Amino acid sequence: MSIGETIRNSQIWRSIFRHPAPTDRRNRAVVVLTNFFLHLHPVSAQKGGIALSYTWCMGGVTFFLFLVEALTGVLLMFYYRPTLEWAFTDIRALRDVTTLGIMREIHRWGAHAMVITVWLHMYRVFLTGSYKPPREFNWVIGVLLLVLTLLLSFTGYLLPWDQLAIWAITVGSNMARAHPVLGHEGPGFQLLNIGGYDLITNASDARFLLLGARNVGEETLNRFYILHCVAIPVVVSLLIAIHFWRVRKDGGISQPL
Amino acid sequence: MLLFLANIGWTMRSYKRDGYYESVLGFQHIPKATVWAFYAAFLMLLAVTHLTSRSAPEEFLLRLPEWFKLSVDVIFRDARIYFGLSVAAFVGMIVWREFLTRDTVGWILFNVGCLFLGLSMTDYDFRQIVGKPDNVPIVGMLFIGGYFTWLYFKKAVDNDRRVAEGRPLAEQELKEQVLVWPDLVYTEMLCMILLTALLIVWGVFLQAPLEEPGQAVKTPNPSKAPWYFLGLQEMLVYFDPWLAGVVLPLVIVQGLMAIPYIDFNKKGNGYYSFADRKFSVIIFLFGFIPLWVGMIVLGTFIRGPNWNMFGLYEFWDVHKLEVLNNRNLSEIIWVVNLEQPLPKPDPASGLISQCLAIFMREGVGILMVIGYFMALPNLMALTFLRKFYVRMGVIRYMVLANLLLFMALLPIKMVLRWAFNLKYIVAIPEWFFNI
Ligand code: HEM
Fold it and tell me: Are both B198 and B122 inside the same structural domain?
């Protein structure tokens, strides 16, 4: 018996993988069915549907990038403190001192790439008409994922707390000030008042809700940090799970009838 | 600076490499191959010279001639020409899709793109902006997005031809069921490895940007939103924040979600095609390419200090002045045409008389906007969208019509701005309500 076979036949190995190596047809089906990660897939699929030139693999790439972001993000969280005092210095230290500081580069470029791939994924889903019945609802979930991906990127942009960050967020969040009715410079904000006192001021409008303050400041940093590291990723994970579930339940990747 | 040099050298080299493959590819058509071979040899020579003499990018042998730069600048400096040309290119892309998706033509397009980028990199001002670390992904996106658009048209043209000739679709020829292990799992594995490698290389060679610590008192000029929101920021030029920043983005998101429910065309599900679903593809591509990606490019590469427009090779001069004398529709009507002062609401008077005064002033604009959103859909239903109306029913038709009108709002406002210096169609600053 070779070493490889010895390992394969050991109790430990067989307790992890409950099937022989996927070398014949039966075991290739079993591996997909019994492995937690692989069971996202169907056992078999139409050749045209999984062709790279058909799906561009963009959904899969987006998902993979999301995983990369989660992993590098957790590593970054070990080094980063979301306070005015430390945020910037911690990021600089990642560049200058920390051994695996390249995590920040990978996290940032991965984020850019994810925005691009999610667009391209939508692009291909549209161009193949894959949103048509019965996949309408999965498209809607997809749009939510798209918006959340952009918001993830946006909230993360603030965290380095450099000039680029705070001004981009200032420009972006100034819009909320003009929210109709709910922003203190939006049309109709006077509608919400009690006895002549405006309820919507610069300390109670939609922008304040977003920033936690009148301007981009420490409270904003905290809010964006929680949104970026906890709130949005949790929602995105849930939606991705539903998204994948629906891809399977709606009959797999779309194909001509 | 050294890093820049390396970057330039790299760009230069990469397109030279491409040039090399070309001659191989070109041998399929032998008469053309000679041309390719010469071209490739020329590029190789250039590459060698550049690599041996590591001089500053400004001194490269092959640079863009000044007249070329100037004319490109003229195009990009002016929103009218920029938008006009991008729409023209869009129409051209659709009309000439069969020609453009030939392999050789695609290859030439790709080469022109690389040459343009590589040569432009020899220009200092271009490098300052396109070479910014955060802008690199956008350049990448243009190439990747361009490629996929090309691929789509190629496959669609092919399928359309098959349908016309009564042959089965390309996708139908691959109906065979295959096992996911190994056919799909291996592809995924490969994608993951390649991506990891790409990210690591990218991370090693390009440092993530970190500017000075943030200071609330020092506003950079220009202040830009993150690049993927620059399309929205660009709309701020034409609309007030409540529209550009709140209402229109919400409409975009809702519009996207509505697509499956308003596209009643049953054909074109699960395969690439153009002929089977012209209307929806054209509308979607128009929204995605000129309006979304186009505006991002504009916002990233062309908008400079004070949100002025600058040519690609132009220095971002903070002192560049642009005369702005935009007027509201009410001013055009009252002051210019009727030669009277604008009616002013009297703050001391009651709410009703204030409203009346405002309506006097803005009535025409208000009626125009109401007409646009209320009357126009009905008109369209009676005329050229009649078929849609009949097949979709009232509600779906109205959703579609309103989404189309919202989408048209931006180009319409642009044209009005350029033609009449129009600032607002309805301007009620008293209520922060300007359209
Ligand atoms: C975080 C974001 C997303 C992830 C991770 C994701 C992932 C995936 C994956 C892995 C597939 C399988 C087929 C493929 O790879 O193309 C898929 C299919 C699909 N996605 Fe997404 N997606 C995302 C966002 C979106 C968006 C933005 C849309 C549309 C607006 C969308 C709509 C769909 C639809 C309709 C399908 C079924 C397509 C078919 O059956 O051909 N998804 N998605």
Answer: yes
